[in-house]
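User: Here's a structure from my thesis project, written as C-alpha cells. My advisor, Dr. K., wants to see whether a designed sequence matches the one we expressed. Can you design one independently, without my sequence as a hint?
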C-alpha cells in the first residue's frame, strides 16, 4: 500500500526491487490466485500486490475478488471478467503483467483475443464457446466458421456485413499485436516495466544479447578497470546537456542509464554528440532503450557509440493513435 501512495509508485517499486535483490529477497510477480490486493510475504520473498499493477485502482477490489479464480481456458477468463464487470483495460493489464499465466499463447495474443471477444455480441460469444474445443480455442478460426455456420432458424450466425463491422473494430488491435509480436521477449519486458516498475522475466541483456555479443550488466561495468572497452544495454533515465567550465568550453551530454542491476553515467563530448545524433536520426530522450559502447572511467563511461533501439511497443489503442498522429 505504501508504494501506491508515493508520487511515483512505479519508480519506487523499481528502486525497492533493486535493494531487495541485494538482500537475496525476490519480488515475485503478480498472480491472480497467489497475490493479495497489496504486497504480501511469501516464505522469504514478497509477492506483488494486484492493486499495485498500473491501471488497476482501489475501486477494482470488489470486481477483482469476484474475478479471482482458476481458469482452464481463455474463454473462461474473458467470460468471467465480463460477469465480474471488470473492464477490458483492467483485464488487459492483468494479462500483460503476466498475472494470468499458464496459457500457450503469448500475452500479446491473449490481449488481442480479449479485445476481439469484447467486440462480439452475447449470442456470438455463446456460439464461440460451443465451438471452442473443435477449433482449439482459436477465436479467429471460430469467427470465420460462424460466418458460414447457420443456426436452428437457418440464419448465418455472423453475416458478411457483421463480419465487416467486426473486422473494422478489430483491425487497430491487430496492428498493435503485429507490432508487439515482432519481439515477444521485449514486449513482455516493456509490459512489466510499465505496469509493475520492474521486470521478472528476461532482462534487457538477455533480450539484446541475441542482437549483439559481449554485452555486460551495468553492475559488472562499474567494476571494470579504467580504460577498458565496455558494451552494455540499458534505459535512459536522465538526459543533461551542458558546457564545461574549462577554457575549451567542451560541449557534453550526460546520460544516466540503468538496467535491472544498477545505473551509470555516460558522457558524450563535442563531435561525438553530432555523430550519435546522425546515427540515431534524433536526440536522446528519457525512456530510450540504448546499446552503449565506450571506455570505462572512474565513475562513468565515456560513450563512443550509443544506439537507440527503435522497437516500438503499444500498450493500448491511444499509443497507436499517438504514433499515427506523429507520422
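Assistant: Designed independently from the structure alone:
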Amino acid at each position: 500500500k505504501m508504494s501506491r501512495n508515493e508520487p511515483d509508485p512505479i519508480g519506487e517499486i523499481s528502486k525497492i526491487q533493486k535493494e531487495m535483490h541485494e538482500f537475496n529477497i525476490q519480488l515475485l510477480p503478480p498472480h491472480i490466485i497467489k497475490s493479495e490486493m497489496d504486497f504480501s510475504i511469501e516464505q522469504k520473498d514478497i509477492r506483488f500486490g494486484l492493486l499495485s499493477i498500473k491501471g488497476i485502482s482501489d475501486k477494482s477490489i470488489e470486481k477483482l475478488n469476484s474475478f479471482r479464480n482458476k481458469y482452464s481456458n481463455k474463454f473462461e477468463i474473458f467470460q468471467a471478467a465480463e460477469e465480474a464487470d471488470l473492464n477490458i483495460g483492467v483485464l488487459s493489464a492483468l494479462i500483460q503483467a503476466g498475472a494470468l499465466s499458464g496459457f500457450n499463447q503469448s500475452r500479446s495474443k491473449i490481449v488481442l483475443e480479449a479485445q476481439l471477444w469484447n467486440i462480439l455480441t452475447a449470442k456470438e460469444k455463446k456460439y464461440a464457446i460451443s465451438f471452442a474445443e473443435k477449433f482449439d480455442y482459436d477465436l479467429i478460426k471460430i469467427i470465420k466458421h460462424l460466418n458460414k455456420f447457420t443456426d436452428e432458424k437457418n440464419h448465418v450466425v455472423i453475416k458478411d456485413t457483421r463480419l465487416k463491422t467486426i473486422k473494422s473494430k478489430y483491425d487497430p488491435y491487430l496492428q498493435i499485436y503485429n507490432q508487439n509480436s515482432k519481439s515477444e521477449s521485449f514486449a513482455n519486458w516493456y509490459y512489466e516495466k510499465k505496469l509493475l516498475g520492474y521486470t521478472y522475466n528476461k532482462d534487457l541483456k538477455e533480450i539484446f544479447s541475441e542482437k549483439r555479443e559481449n554485452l555486460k550488466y551495468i553492475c559488472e561495468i562499474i567494476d571494470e578497470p579504467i580504460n577498458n572497452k565496455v558494451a552494455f544495454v540499458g534505459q535512459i533515465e536522465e538526459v543533461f546537456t551542458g558546457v564545461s567550465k574549462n577554457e575549451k568550453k567542451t560541449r557534453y551530454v550526460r546520460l544516466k542509464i540503468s538496467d535491472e542491476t544498477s545505473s551509470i553515467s555516460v558522457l558524450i563530448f563535442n563531435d561525438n554528440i553530432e555523430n550519435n545524433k546522425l546515427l540515431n536520426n534524433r536526440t536522446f530522450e528519457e525512456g530510450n532503450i540504448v546499446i552503449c559502447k565506450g571506455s570505462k572511467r572512474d565513475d562513468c563511461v565515456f560513450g563512443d557509440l550509443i544506439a537507440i533501439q527503435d522497437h516500438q511497443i503499444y500498450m493500448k489503442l491511444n499509443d497507436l493513435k499517438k504514433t499515427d498522429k506523429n507520422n
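When you compare it with your expressed construct, this may help: The longest strand covers residues 229-243.
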